[in-house]
Design brief:
about 270 residues; four-stranded antiparallel sheet; mainly beta; globular; four-stranded mixed sheet
């Protein structure tokens, strides 16, 4: 498997990191107290030489100047499993984040209303099939609440909150959830590391202003996901991330809007 060798030097301290290229994450070193250096954006899995003091659990290493260490590292929240939707055979990557098992892709199941088979209850953004293939489908809330496959469900607002708290809170969790780079996200895709493995994609949305006017929010700008938690007859909680900040927002949304769906494994 291909490896990426990165060498960083800080105040005569050389740190060599060998990173699995397919899961490479941005790496930073921060000088702490008592000559301790914190490795951020990257969990420490192994230290391959003898150090006088090690504390890899919290990401800190105590090292002497001119000392060289080598760390073999991979993201601990890699896509370690997959799930096949028996309804259409589509395979989804999954990721364990804390005690929760999430789909690591937006749902792309073309559900049909058997009572009204010609009625569209899910959409490809801008009605382009290639957008469904990459970003998944957009669903109104009434459809989203029942679209996850057996054994999975639309997460509650509390379950979203659990995820966000595990990733450090709303101000930084969005960056840890977003796919890196600008292949799918608009530039600059601020602070996107995807260190969680969630791989949030900017699937956009289909927004209804009233009974007569609606429009697509194009892919690349933002990603929006439903929760199952109702606030009123018309409104529910949802979560949103954008290309231009690392925050994940909690927003009140109208049930007639169409957002992406991420399914969470039942306990």
């Amino acid at each position: 498997m291909a490896k990426l060798l990165c060498v960083f030097t800080f105040l005569m301290v050389t740190v060599i990191l060998t990173i699995n290229k397919t899961n490479a994450q941005p790496v930073m070193l921060k000088k702490g107290n008592e000559d301790r250096y914190q490795i951020t954006h990257l969990p420490v899995n192994m230290i391959r030489n003898e150090l006088k003091e090690q504390n890899p659990k919290n990401g800190y290493l105590t090292i002497q100047e001119t000392e060289t260490i080598q760390i073999s590292s991979q993201n601990t929240n890699v896509h370690d499993s997959s799930f096949a939707d028996s309804r259409d055979g589509r395979i989804y990557r999954t990721v364990q984040i804390g005690n929760q098992l999430w789909m690591a892709e937006n749902l792309n199941y073309n559900i049909i209303d058997i009572r009204h088979p010609r009625k569209r209850i899910s959409f490809c953004n801008e009605s382009k099939k290639e957008n469904c293939d990459i970003y998944g489908r957009l669903y109104n809330w009434t459809t989203a609440i029942k679209v996850c496959p057996t054994g999975w469900h639309l997460p509650t607002d509390d379950e979203w909150t659990t995820l966000i708290a595990y990733l450090g809170g709303r101000n930084i969790a969005g960056g840890k959830m977003k796919e890196t780079g600008t292949m799918h996200w608009c530039s600059p895709n601020i602070e996107a590391t995807n260190e969680s493995g969630f791989t949030a994609l900017p699937g956009g949305a289909f927004v209804s202003l009233d009974s007569y006017e609606s429009f697509f929010i194009k892919v690349g700008i933002s990603g929006s996901w439903w929760s199952s938690t109702e606030l009123s007859k018309f409104n529910v909680w949802s979560r949103h991330v954008s290309f231009n900040f690392s925050i994940i927002n909690r927003i009140i949304s109208n049930k007639n809007d169409c957002f992406s769906v991420r399914c969470l494994k039942d306990n």
